[in-house]
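We emphasize that the prediction below concerns an isolated chain of 178 residues; any contacts that depend on oligomerization or on bound cofactors are therefore not represented. The input was used exactly as deposited, without trimming of termini.
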Amino acid sequence: MRLADKKVLSLVHHEFEDLELWYPILRLREEGAQVDLAGEKAGETYKGKYGVPAESDSSFDEIDPSDYDALLVPGGWAPDKLRRFSKVIEIVQHMETHKKPIGQICHAGWVLISAKMLQGKKVTSTPGIKDDMENAGAVWLDEAVVVDGHLVSSRRPPDLPPYVKAFADVLAGEYNEQ
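Result of the prediction step, given as a token string:
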């Protein structure tokens, strides 16, 4: 399993997009990665937009981002809540500074905007936040998945297969520009 030595952090809060949280977690676990969920509170059950639950392993405040190889930020309405936590912003900025893979899909771009890390980056997102991404200095592309170095972004649930494949490839150090 090519990701057996990798540790990934996924952020969670209420009203995450169910598939955008769970599909990447399950696929990365299938490849051997350890994926932990961090929420506002440890051991809390968060509900997705369609009611699928996710229990956090730890709180944001308990996280040391240097313990992780990569970060996943799901979409849905959760990103609007996630970006309000200074510790979440610190985690994202740590990953950016250390060029660790960051995966973001749909509305997750809001968290990266708040972390002030998109200037000059090529990204995609749900078209609904295209203006927000561009106003933050990003170059927005309407593609299923966009990889800019360690940043892997995607639009919405139908794009999950190529998004998670690209993210896993980046994490494994095997990504080849297509």
